[in-house]
Specification:
- With 406 residues, the chain is an alpha/beta fold.
- Helices cover 38% and strands 20% of the residues.
- An eight-stranded mixed sheet has the order 5-4-3-2-1-6-8-7, with helices on both faces. The chain has a six-stranded mixed sheet with strand order 11-10-9-12-14-13, sandwiched between helices.
- α11 (296-320) crosses α13.
- The longest helix has 25 residues, at 296-320.
- 43% of the residues are buried.
Length: 406
């Protein structure tokens, strides 16, 4: 294989995030974002390695136009998609069901299965498909590889993955806990072990991926044994706009008494719940500002968020039996010291605590924020989903011994 570069694409409903990584040394050659695709004015931000970032606004009507704009920006830096150094294009795909447990070379059968999973990932899989098909059209000769958010969680035992409903009904409609943010949980659990100076196979970690979407996982010896998200990314922790765990009978009540349709309830639970439903804000920085100013509605939202988080820490402590570390990651987990402090407050009996001074320090490196000689380490580990995706893809392409994977 001649190429050593992997282009990682994360296609959302109205955005495309991208990174071009040289896998020989892990260098990011370029990073960027196209946002507001399909709106009147779209925006592209592009930053090459060692250079100044560029930004422009204009019309980007669809994902094809977005990827062509990305290709044009890369070409300006001598990193065009026609480069022989490009080994593969990798795609983050949110839902892979049970079939896809590892990086997968994309063909028509794979595309059909991703499309078949759209009903359980209606906000994500369609956008992922659009990004894949557009990239295929731009470079039909290049391996296109999918890395699935659900793959890391396929090691869960049936006792954790099964819902307690009629087995035949569940199997007929593939209803079970799949879990999401898998590339992040995989990367952070492994990096936490490295931070402790130990092999992942000997470390038990509770990973808390806290962003606008949020999920927890229990990782025993490098393998996921439980996770908070379920059939869809709606279950589990309180999130920016999603409710997380809730009595399912609330849905029936809203239908029968509130007169709401299934689509209206779907919108309510996915887009108008969580923090934004509780206090009107889904940015933790703004919520904390309001809390500090004495806003009781923001305080209640924060307390509900922390209460749910603390419950999952306790539950996964019980699942694992022994916990070596609790790792906070993603936007809120990495940057909100008050969230980390509140989440472990009162759990000293479980060996959990944070050092106030260490916890207050901001930085881009993985670090411990627990007191010295703490029984359970509390870590802040910046996630790197793009590097995790690129690493998995490059390993697959190298194993094939054939740049076209034929």
């Amino acid at each position: 294989m001649t190429g050593s570069r992997v282009l990682v694409l994360n296609s959302g409903s109205s955005s495309v995030k991208y990174q071009l990584i040289d896998m020989r040394g892990g260098e990011r050659l370029a990073v960027g974002l196209v946002e507001r695709i399909g709106e009147e004015t779209s925006r592209l931000k592009h930053t090459p390695a060692g250079g100044d970032g560029r930004e422009w606004s204009g019309a980007v009507p669809d994902h094809e136009a977005a990827l062509k704009a990305v290709a044009a920006e890369l070409a300006k830096d001598g990193l065009g998609l026609d480069s022989p150094e490009l080994a593969a294009i990798g795609h983050r795909v949110v839902h892979g069901g049970l079939r896809f447990t590892e990086p997968t070379v994309i063909d028509e059968a794979v595309l059909a299965e991703i499309e078949r999973l759209v009903p359980v990932a209606p906000l994500h899989n369609p956008a992922n498909l659009t990004g894949i098909r557009t990239a295929q059209a731009l470079r039909p000769d290049l391996p296109q590889v999918a890395v699935f958010d659900t793959a890391f969680h396929t090691t869960m035992p049936e006792s954790a993955a099964r819902y307690a409903i009629d087995v035949e009904t569940a199997d007929a409609h593939r209803i079970r806990r799949y879990g999401f943010h898998g590339t992040s949980h995989a990367y952070v659990s492994r990096e936490t072990a490295r931070l402790l100076g130990r092999a992942p196979e000997g470390v038990n970690v509770i990973v808390l991926h806290l962003g606008n979407g949020a999920s927890a996982s229990a990782v025993r010896g490098g393998r996921c044994v439980d996770t908070s998200m379920g059939l869809t990314p709606l279950e589990g922790l309180v999130m920016g706009t999603r409710s997380g765990d809730m009595d399912p009978a609330v849905i029936f009540h809203l239908m029968r008494v509130g007169g709401m349709s299934a689509d209206e309830i779907d919108t309510l639970l996915n887009k108008r719940s969580g923090l934004i439903g509780l206090c009107g804000d889904n940015d933790m920085r703004e919520i904390r500002r309001r809390v500090d100013a004495g806003d009781e509605r923001a305080r209640l939202a924060f307390d509900i968020y922390i209460h749910r988080l603390k419950k999952y820490i306790g539950a996964y402590y019980a699942v694992l039996g022994r916990v070596d570390a609790v790792a906070f990651t993603a936007g809120v987990g990495e940057n909100s010291a008050p969230v980390r402090e509140a989440a472990v407050a009162g759990l000293e009996g479980l060996g959990l605590a944070v050092d106030g001074e260490l916890n207050a320090v901001r930085g881009d490196e993985a670090r411990l924020v627990s007191p010295e000689r703490a029984r359970v380490a509390v870590a802040v580990v910046p996630t790197d989903e793009e590097m995790e995706i690129a690493t998995q893809i490059y390993a697959l392409v190298n194993e094939s011994g054939n740049p076209n994977l034929t």
